[in-house]
Amino acid sequence: MSIRQIAGTLGAIIVFGVALMAIFAPLLVPHDPFAQDLNLRLVPPSFMDGGQPDHFLGTDQLGRDYFSRLIYGARISMLIGVATVITSGLIGITLGMLGGFLGGRADMVVMFIITCRLSIPLILVALAVVSLVGSSLTVVVLTLGLLLWERFAVVTRTTVMQVRTLDYVSAAWAAGCSRTHILLREILPNIVHHLVVVATLEMAIAILLEAALSFLGLGVPPPLPSWGLMISEAKDYMFFSPWVIMVPGISLFILVLGINFLGDALRDFLGATRDA
Amino acid sequence: MLVFFGRRLLVALLVTLTVLTVSFALTRLSGDLAIAIAGPQATEQDIIIIRKAYGLDRPVVVQFVDWVVSAASGDLGRSYIYHEPVARLIKDRLPVTLTLGLTGLLIAMATAIPIGILAAMREGTLFDRGIMMIAVIGQAMPSFWLGLLLIITFGLKLGWLPISGVDEWDGYVLPGIVLAFAAIPAMMRLTRSGMVDALASDYIRTARAKGLSRASIVLKHALRNAAMPVVAVAAVQLGFMLSGSVVIESVFALHGVGYLGWESISKNDFPVVQAVVLFLAVVYIFLTLMADLLNAFLDPRLRTS
């Protein structure tokens, strides 16, 4: 196996592992992730000095079991990733298909909307929206979904343009198929492999963005155990107990790396392009 | 060329106007601004007074037109918290953000371009593939977390660099590295693919046949052709860096424009939020416009499409 295949396999294992962790979180956790124990604050992981066997990854500043919070945090990251991809995918693919298929004026409008979206400072606007509407998981998903569609739109538009002049599309026109039929039945299935690859990239970006928003205090509200929020809450203690930011940080890093590896492997396997 | 320039400028203006509308609409989403400004303890009477004092009792369209007209003349309104003109607040904090952005860009280019060239010269070898793998790994690093790790390692454990603030020039090093980190993979890929194409071209074969040295071929002949897209991307990356500095500035407690934006969002200081969003957008639009024009100037084929 080449390096790339090993990376791809590793990516698939990580992503499915975290997904399973998220789904079966209530069965896996040794403690209630929200239960505080002020007598047991900032206990180090069990493999470090002063650790307790009961708390595998130690406890946080409120004495909550870190391992349990980490597993519940996987739920938030996966939910954000998947839900954002679905929302932004719907918007981006629709816009991209309209622009690429209709061409002309419609395409100019689509390109203009994409340019506008790119000019809007992403993080600042996301922070502002979450702050104005009030922070909750739904608000974060919708905000990210409404902001992260441009890569879907660009790739859909370009690939539709490449496909629409091919023989089987002309054949469908000649056979008297409707526009909708051609778009959804002839074109979409032939570009879907590109979109799958974009989806993995978009999922990684969404997860990192949610973490950044939560880190800045305007993402997922406490006491939910978002990994970004865990880093934010722990950063005042990081000088004396560095593991408090290492545990959620490494988890984020591994998950995003896994998604990127999987995306690269899919690109090689499906022969798709990932770059816009 | 002139037609291209004019059309491109028109699009940039339209985009600016759209962003203006969006950033205005954004602050009206919340419903009543006056209630947010007045705070939780305000009475009905206070809210009415505030609504009048800030001109929020006028129709939304009137407020919008008023804001656009004054924004166009450089008046971005007054901060509710600082009681100062927003334009001055941004101007005071711009040097920090700009220095940070340029430091990040410099670090990114100084790292990405040489590595990209080396990878292209050894195309397909273990070195090349290893570098590309490292780029993927780097992209998975959450920037704020990387910032904290650098603070712990270089600021606290080794004591080499300050962990926050920019009283001296060395305060920009760590945040600059974090900012550069995000831009390096894209720049490296672009340099590499540009160099791979350039090295395979006819004029390089001619240069080789003439017996020129390897260094001269790579640096003078190939790089000059591969560098154009990289320079254009660098401009766009600078735009992304300036807007991404919101996170980095708050990690390193740098009082730049990004920090101002974040601070104003958490304090409901809406004129500042509107203005910072608009300002970052305009900078980005300007930079992409410059990159497009530069590309068109260097490559005549782009002008006609």
Q: Would you tell me which CATH topology of the largest domain in chain B applies? A: MetI-like fold
Shape estimate of chain A: elongated
Largest sheet of chain B: none
Q: Give the helix proportion of chain A (percent range).
A: over 70%
Query: Total helix count of chain B?
Result: 13
Structural class of chain A: mainly alpha
Number of domains of chain B: 2
What summary fits the major beta sheet of chain A?
Answer: none
From the N-terminal CA to the C-terminal CA of chain B, the straight-line distance is 11 Å
Share of helical residues of chain B: over 70%
Subunit organisation of the chains:
heterodimer
How many β strands of chain A by DSSP?
Answer: 0
Considering residues with a beta carbon less than 8 A from a beta carbon on another chain, report the largest interface and each chain's count. Answer: A-B, 44 and 47 residues
Q: What is the helix/strand order of chain B? A: HHHHHHHHHHHHH
- The share of residues in extended strands of chain B comes to under 5%
Bulk shape of chain B: flat
The Cα radius of gyration of chain A reads 22 Å
The residue ranges of chain A in which pLDDT falls below 50 over 5 or more consecutive positions are: none
Mean pLDDT of chain B: 82
Task: Describe this entry's structure for a reader.
The complex is a heterodimer of chains A (276) and B (305). By secondary structure, chain A is mostly helical. Chain B folds into two domains: 56 residues; 213 residues, MetI-like (MetI-like fold, Orthogonal Bundle), CATH 1.10.3720. The longest helix of chain B is centred in the last third of the chain and has 38 residues. Chain B is flat and about 85 Å long. Chain B starts with a helix and ends with a helix. The relative contact order of chain B is 0.14. At the A-B interface, helix 1, helix 4, helix 5, helix 9 and helix 11 of A face helix 1, helix 6, helix 7, helix 10 and helix 11 of B.
